[in-house]
TrEMBL record:
InterPro entries: Fe-S_metab-assoc_dom. This is Cysteine desufuration protein SufE. Belongs to the SufE family. It comes from the Bacteria. Residues 10-133 form the Fe-S metabolism associated domain. Coiled coil: none annotated. SUPFAM superfamilies: SufE/NifU.
Length: 143
C-alpha cells in the first residue's frame, strides 16, 4: 500500500543522496497495488512515455463532489515509482482540485525534476497531462 503523499515528501526530504532517493522511488513502485490485466489496455496506456505506462481513472461519485481514484502500472522500475508518486499525489482529490494541482512543483520539491532523464521527465509530464485531462473532463461534466 502506498504511503500518503505527505509521508513520501517527508521521506524524500530525509534522504540526502540521489542514490537513496532512487532506491526509495523504486520501493514506492513496488508498493503499487497490482493493476488487473484487463486494465493494461490501449485506453489506459499513456502516450508520450518511453516505457509502457498504464493509468486507470475511476470516478467516485458517492460524495457531494466527484473524486478521482487512480490505479497504474509500468514495465520499468523507476517509471513505476513515478507512477506511484503521481497516484499518491492525485488519488482521492476532487476533480476540480486535481485539475489545478501542481505536480510539477511536487517533482521539483522532491528533486525529481533535476535527476530524471529527459525521457523520463517527458513521460512524467505525459502522465500529469493525462491525469489533468481526465480531471478537467470529470469537473466539466459535474458543472
Amino acid at each position: 500500500m502506498l504511503p500518503p503523499i505527505d509521508e513520501i515528501v517527508s521521506n524524500f526530504e530525509f534522504l540526502d543522496e540521489w542514490d537513496d532517493r532512487h532506491q526509495y522511488l523504486m520501493e514506492l513502485g513496488r508498493k503499487l497495488p497490482p493493476l488487473p490485466e484487463e486494465a493494461h489496455s490501449e485506453a489506459n496506456r499513456v502516450r508520450g512515455c518511453v516505457s509502457q505506462v498504464w493509468l486507470e481513472t475511476q470516478v467516485d461519485r458517492s460524495g457531494p463532489e466527484p473524486r478521482l481514484r487512480f490505479r497504474g502500472d509500468s514495465d520499468a522500475h523507476i517509471t513505476k515509482g513515478v507512477v506511484a508518486v503521481l497516484i499518491a499525489f492525485f488519488d482521492g482529490r476532487t476533480a476540480a482540485d486535481a485539475a489545478r494541482a501542481d505536480a510539477l512543483g511536487l517533482f521539483q520539491k522532491l528533486g525529481l525534476s533535476e535527476h530524471l532523464t529527459a525521457q523520463r521527465s517527458n513521460g512524467a509530464r505525459a502522465m500529469m497531462d493525462r491525469i489533468r485531462a481526465d480531471a478537467e473532463g470529470v469537473a466539466a461534466a459535474a458543472a
